[in-house]
Specification:
Length: 529
């Protein structure tokens, strides 16, 4: 079979597409083997031919569909699926293209992707290399916005209790906006008219691909400043931008911006767009201003109004102080009239002082005379005769006591004390013996009482104790019910089985009382009288 009769590779791969010539593929085909009609290709040759054919036919396409699975590996590339109700196409967005895309792809978002089709020989599949990705109209953006809003609201980022109060008069205000737009001029002009403050501007892109990351970095950067540093930390932040379409304001709807605002420790005012424009940053911020000019009005009060209020408060304070002084002066006058004069208060103490001054010389003379008499009386006891008599009396007393301190006196004293100790010991021994004998007699009496009251003494008189099955039996009926009877006598116990002795009750009757035997006549006792 001649080579001209071999089927075209382009015709086999394109199912009817004859865009490639046989001559262009002839170098990929081995020489035919005699006896075989079909050529043989290697796997790489066939994959390369398919890749060139698909890239040649679909070098530039636009596909509209819904984003399915999305993955963001560390390499920076983005892998996603584009799908409709019947088919799915794999797509890849390289790192350079992903960094330029304004809208971050999310699952469920309807987009229009522009790119080229190619194949991935390692897995025998075709995929779309995305060069541009845009939402499919405003409806898709609004649907994605509502979905993102619901997610952040469920996390509590819109909660009212999270919002921080704005400072009344901040010292430093940080503004995150474009430095070349009219927004910053309006803010500075309004601040200068109301109350000039120190303003720090952090320039950012307010639309496009770099808007969201730059705004988020600016908010985090202001929060990272140290208070009192070379660049002071702001007391209030304003994120501002002029009006525009939803696509222009989309950077302020990004999740990274909303989370940066929620994480800010500095109170933040959002002033993005006109009054009718609403972005996610408005829901997360501590205060929303309809315009950038209104944000400046919310940031600071009017200085003239504060000056007028201070002047009014000063006048009120002056009037209040005057009235208070007048009331206290009148009260002091009223109290002064009720207080007696100083001369009247001092008259009585003066009279007492004069009387004491007159009596003081006489009292001093009487005191001196009394002490002189007492001294004269006590001086008589200090004469030599009196002292000698006192010494003699003391010597006699000492002599009487000295006799007791001699060996003979001490011996007599010891003997006397020994006799006293012996007498006490004898008395103590007699008292102990008497007490022991008394206790012994008491114990013997109690033992006799015990024997008298014991039932064993009754058994000695001919009585017995009957027990049935271990319990005390008091009636014939109970004895008939017992299976075993035990009778206790004075000299022991006897057990009787119920079958061996009749258990019929016997009618009891009191025996006739025997007359007591008469005692033998005793001789009559004679009369004592």
């Amino acid at each position: 079979m001649s080579p001209s009769a071999w089927p075209s590779v382009a015709g086999v791969l394109s199912c009817g597409e004859q865009s490639y010539k046989r001559a262009e593929m002839s170098d990929l085909i081995d020489d035919p083997i005699e006896g075989e009609n079909a050529p043989e290709f290697s796997v790489s040759e066939l994959s390369g031919a398919i890749k060139r054919m698909i890239e040649g036919e679909f070098s530039h396409v636009r596909i509209k569909g819904e984003i399915g699975r999305v993955s963001f590996p560390r390499s920076g590339h983005v892998y996603l699926d584009l799908k409709d109700d019947r088919s799915v196409i794999a797509a890849v967005m390289w790192k350079g293209v992903a960094s330029r895309i304004a809208t971050r792809p999310e699952e469920g978002m309807e987009v229009v992707a522009t790119g080229r089709l190619t194949t991935f020989p390692g897995q025998s599949k075709y995929q779309l290399v995305v060069e541009d990705l845009k939402p499919a109209g405003v409806g898709a953006l609004m649907a994605m916005l509502e979905k993102r809003k619901a997610m952040l609201q469920a996390e509590g980022l819109f909660a009212q209790e999270r919002k921080k109060p704005l400072p009344y008069l901040p010292e430093v205000i940080g503004v995150v906006t474009s430095p070349s737009g009219a927004v910053i001029r309006d803010i500075l002009h309004r601040l200068r008219d109301r109350f000039p403050r120190k303003v720090i501007i952090w320039p950012v892109a307010v639309q496009g691909e770099q808007c969201a990351p730059q705004v988020a970095n600016a908010i985090a950067g202001f929060n990272n400043l140290s208070p009192g540093g070379a660049l002071p930390r702001p007391d209030l932040l304003i994120v501002a931008r002029g009006g525009g379409s939803i696509e222009d304001l989309w950077g302020f709807n990004e999740e990274i911006v909303a989370r940066a605002v929620a994480a800010s420790d500095i109170p933040l005012i959002s002033a993005v767009g006109h009054e009718t424009d609403t972005t996610l940053i408005d829901f997360v911020s501590d205060k929303r201003a309809p315009t950038p000019t209104a944000a400046a009005e919310l940031a600071v009060p009017v200085r003239l109004e504060i000056a007028g209020w201070v002047e009014e408060q000063g006048a009120r304070m002056t009037r209040g102080i005057g009235q208070a002084l007048s009331v206290r002066d009148q009260r002091l006058r009223d109290l002064a009239r009720a207080i007696p004069r100083a001369d009247a208060l001092l008259q009585t103490p003066r009279q007492r002082l004069d009387a004491a001054g007159d009596a003081l010389p006489r009292a001093l003379q009487a005191g001196v005379q009394t002490r002189r008499v007492a001294l004269a009386q006590s001086s008589g006891g200090l004469r030599s005769q009196s002292l000698q008599r006192m010494i003699e009396i003391r010597r006699q007393t000492l002599g009487r006591h000295a006799d007791r301190l001699t060996p003979v006196g001490l011996t007599r004293d010891i003997e006397r004390r020994k006799e006293k100790v012996s007498d006490l010991s004898r008395r103590l021994s007699d008292a102990g013996a008497r007490q022991v004998q008394s206790l012994r007699d008491q114990l013997a009496g109690l033992d006799r009482m015990r024997e008298t009251l014991s039932y064993q003494a009754t058994l000695e008189r001919g009585y017995a104790v009957v027990r049935g099955d271990g319990n005390l039996v008091k009636t014939a009926e109970l004895a008939g019910k017992a299976s075993e009877i035990e009778i206790e006598f004075a000299d022991g116990r006897l057990k009787v089985q119920q079958g061996a002795v009749s258990a019929k009750p016997v009618t009891s009757s009191k025996p006739a009382t025997k007359p007591k035997p008469k005692k033998p006549d005793s001789p009559e006792q004679g009369s004592l009288f």
